[in-house]
User: What shape does this take?
Amino acid sequence: MNIPFAIRTYAPEILREALKRMYLIRRFEEGAEDSYMRGLIHGTMHLSIGQEASAMATCIELGDNDKITSTHRGHGHCIAKGADVGRMFAEFFGKETGYCHGRGGSMHIADVKTGNLGANGIVGGGLPIAVGAALSAKRLGRPDVTVCFFGDGANNEGAFHESLNMAAVWKLPVIFVCENNGYGMSTSTARSTAVKRIADRAAGYSMPGVTVDGNDFSAVAEAVHHAIARARAGEGPSLVENLTYRWRGHSKSDRNRYRTKEEIAEWMERDPIARFRAELIAHGVLDEAGANAIETQAQAYVEAGIEFAKASPAPGIGDVTRYVYAEAQG
Amino acid sequence: MNIPFAIRTYAPEILREALKRMYLIRRFEEGAEDSYMRGLIHGTMHLSIGQEASAMATCIELGDNDKITSTHRGHGHCIAKGADVGRMFAEFFGKETGYCHGRGGSMHIADVKTGNLGANGIVGGGLPIAVGAALSAKRLGRPDVTVCFFGDGANNEGAFHESLNMAAVWKLPVIFVCENNGYGMSTSTARSTAVKRIADRAAGYSMPGVTVDGNDFSAVAEAVHHAIARARAGEGPSLVENLTYRWRGHSKSDRNRYRTKEEIAEWMERDPIARFRAELIAHGVLDEAGANAIETQAQAYVEAGIEFAKASPAPGIGDVTRYVYAEAQG
Amino acid sequence: MNAMTDLRLMTYSEAIREAMAIALEADPTVILMGEDIGVYGGAFQVTLDLIDRFGPDRVMDTPISELGGAGVAVGAALTGLKPIFEFQFSDFAMLAMEQIVNQAAKLRYMLGGEASVPVVFRLPSGSGTGAAAQHSQSIEAWFGHVPGLKVLQPSTPEDAKGMLLAALADPDPVMIFEHKLLYKMKGEVPAGHYLTPIGKAAIRREGTDVTIVAGSIMVHRALEAAEKLAAEGISAEVIDLRSIRPIDHATILASVKKTGRLMVVYEGVKAFGVGAEISAMVSESEAFDFLDAPILRLGAADAPVPYNPDLERAAVPQVDTIEAAARRLARREV
Amino acid sequence: MNAMTDLRLMTYSEAIREAMAIALEADPTVILMGEDIGVYGGAFQVTLDLIDRFGPDRVMDTPISELGGAGVAVGAALTGLKPIFEFQFSDFAMLAMEQIVNQAAKLRYMLGGEASVPVVFRLPSGSGTGAAAQHSQSIEAWFGHVPGLKVLQPSTPEDAKGMLLAALADPDPVMIFEHKLLYKMKGEVPAGHYLTPIGKAAIRREGTDVTIVAGSIMVHRALEAAEKLAAEGISAEVIDLRSIRPIDHATILASVKKTGRLMVVYEGVKAFGVGAEISAMVSESEAFDFLDAPILRLGAADAPVPYNPDLERAAVPQVDTIEAAARRLARREV
Ligand SMILES: Cc1ncc(C[n+]2csc(CCOP(=O)(O)OP(=O)(O)O)c2C)c(N)n1
Ligand SMILES: Cc1ncc(C[n+]2csc(CCOP(=O)(O)OP(=O)(O)O)c2C)c(N)n1
Ligand SMILES: [Mg+2]
Ligand SMILES: [Mg+2]
Assistant: This one.
């Protein structure tokens, strides 16, 4: 039997932790959706349900010193990189205990301590920031790499072009991970993007570009693994394109007029979590009971997180201008 | 004997007119340089001496209904497209008779009537504007094409990426002509651009990209000819890269510390005007005397243009805010 | 103005859509451009079904390329089309400042009057939707600083329609800041084609004690505050600014001369905002000598827009803060 | 401040270069980024030979990619470096508004204080060089409207150096607008490391009849005008604003209370410019009751900067227009 890359490469406890985080992402987002319906969360949010393998497999080799820049669809990245779901819920509930002390919400969720420089409300906004983080690593002589998540829609922003070009010219340790879920909001890649595979654009920056099944944990992990190795070896950036799909609408305002029920159903059959779970079981990394335990644990974390968030204090109303500037030292 | 494309394709009087305009460009810029030294022109200017074949061969098939967008190094494009050197000098001298009524100067030289939508002070600024002009032609059902001139330096602006992508997605009749003179100001393409040939970036937009010797009139004319045919046939945009060189410094402030005397001398030996002239003579389009007459005529136009400009009135000092908004109709 | 029978009750976004439909119908050179304005109907459902009526050649979804998209609109306007370009949120206009300010606003001037750029930019803006710092800004004051542009801010469905039609009839670039919270507001809207004059403020309520100049959604908050103040015998005149560039000096100055007290209410950050210009304009005018009290500005807190809903509300002027400030001003407690 | 012996006569650009050299020497996390700042020495020769002294890893030529370049600086600042990013002309900052305003200015806030973006943007600006509408703007007022930023405008070589060092010592993003026509201006500059406090205006000339607040090159024009007015017995106090965000309210208000007359001189477009904010700030303060005359603003004409040199000069305040306006104000002819 052909042993998938991830199984060959990572220790069982790492793989089990990865599965746990994927469940955490799924349950977290379901919990957020539910909290939104119940009026506990305001504003809007962008769910990544269906894209969990892309987030988790990309982050599996990253340490806290490695950085990521994330997107408006960033809950999965945040959890995959190691954030605590309680503080995430607290943020979504606008609480002072949230990662952004209630100032940022879903669209700016971040956890600087685990290397997540933040989700971004601006499509493409994180691309040059990631290149800057990689520049820091190189100039300061640190071995860290930076992973830059972005969407297929973002690939048409000028920031994409400028960022990939500079990263390549300066041979910086950054991995551009395009989560191609087929649509930027309602606009399909066919209607927005003048090239079939976004990874094909890598050639214009003389960097390797590869397209993988983004719902196949091992495929993503392997592609990113090579890109990280290249980055750490000082050979420069790479582009990895993960083909995936979001099960939910773009955001809370989506009428879903641009895709068919059939298409959605078809992709739901390719659930990346079920697939990874089956693979782990098939290769003896865990058994059904073990997988169920992980799933239950994830659910428990999410419930505890919601309780933590609910019980947390809101920011003081007089603190509107706090955190605009650094507080006076000394 | 192998007959060059231009000789095969265009009528002798067209070819002679092309040579004349190339001389006009050269003499115009020498005249502008001289006028600048003598304090008749203020500000700065960017001379295209050495790049005349790129401008003229690109424009040879364009009519007044076809549009161009030009760059900060735009005198050659303006003359190639059919502008009058007298009104150009008048503009440089800041006179009301100038193409921009003294408001624009060298950096905004334009002649909307001959289809030149204007030089641009912003590197890359003309790229989306050109796409917009092509969109107009397509929507209004006109057969016009738009040529978008830009430099190698401009190819790293986000506007390049966004513009090429949209032009390709919408199959617009636009020809992107990159005048690659090796440097964006002091920065060589090797230090700024993560790909060897800028035309190689065309693949990222699924459009044809071709690199030609930009000092070879026929090579440029042929490449652009095919691109225009494609555009007029509704097949969409193309990218043509003309390899050329500017003999002068970037602008008036250039200390020339980034390139060698030898490099400059070597390129001066590849003078595109001398080469085209010799080709025309070799193929009997004209003889030495005819060529000399053209050259003399160009010189005479330039001298007359300077006199016209000198004798022209300046804008009234009270008219600072004229032309900011359309003047009230009726 | 049309006869009463021609008035229909419709929402602000329906009024905008109707203006676009009228223009698309009447003028083949009008096109719409923007992200997800086609089948999605726009992030705020303003274009809704226009793609079904006018097709994808007239109602064009653009890639997510604000700089390029706006630039295409500028180039198209320069060469015979009249594009209405929608930024999905006004915050994203920051990606296109170069095309709006360096190109669209200046082309006519740089080309000595030989070019015209009849483009209309629509920009949904403002806070109150829980979308945090990058999706809630009110940056219209910036464009007031840019010669060559016209900058409008409709506060009613009637104006939203009439201003869009006026912008289309204008040969120069016009920016229209629409307020997200107003999209569902209903009001009476005349049928057919009509123009709301650009650069004319509207007195929405007459008063004698204090002048409140407000724009966009703040007009409604100011009117509510004025209503409450009336109960206490304080008579506030509420002026709907409508146009940030040009500003209707005459209407504001006449009111200040009458009341002697001025307050400006706006949603942008207080410093360097719309209120600064209006205050300064009055202070250097002949109305200066009529002023009986300091000029108050009520703008947003000096912070990005926060996510937490209570903080978000506290960050911008609300009915109660307007009311309190106007009371202090009327009583000369400032 | 240093002893007199430590003062050297040097130009504004030399002073800026010295500040950069001191910082590069003292702090290995400082880097310079910008277009052609290496062997070319920068469009205005401000970085000149720094690449020879510190090498291309510390003095980085960027591709012509303002949005990306500024964003790289933001990302680097977020993760341990202190980049000084030069825009070749302040006009090109329009391509990077998104990274400056949506990202750099807001990151600390959006992340609830958990992030710091110590980046410095240097922006050569202003007119007077014949470079026309897209290379001559004074857009600093826009950034005064943006919480999260600090915005400086040095008028002397001493301040140019001290402000840059202060900006580097500041944990938040700072924008420094340098005036192109000042680069060759000479002045005394202290040796070594010192900080010009951010947010403190400077009284450059004391006076009793009229307060003139000016920034950047306008300080020098105002001083020249004040000198002429002194001959007629009009005593003008000239305040160098220095910082646009934050603004030093106290210094300005104290002066206005003394003179009762205020005039603001700036190079940006008059409407929505620096003068609007200062005028409004005074009009809503306790100094309002001390005002004996309207507040005058002298800013640029309502037009893009024209190419023709006479028009260009006429478009912005000059010594004679400042003098005339101050005289009218002192005589209460306004
Ligand atoms: C600069 C900018 N333009 C537009 C938007 C509105 N917007 C938010 S997400 C989105 C679609 C992004 O598509 P993609 O990059 O494919 O990410 P996905 O949502 O599919 O994960 C759009 C248009 C934005 N936030 N920022
Ligand atoms: C947006 C912008 N950035 C920078 C500049 C300054 N600048 C003017 S020309 C130039 C070099 C342009 O290089 P290229 O595109 O190769 O054209 P070339 O000058 O070689 O003809 C630069 C950096 C500018 N005018 N606009
Ligand atoms: Mg997508
Ligand atoms: Mg070049």
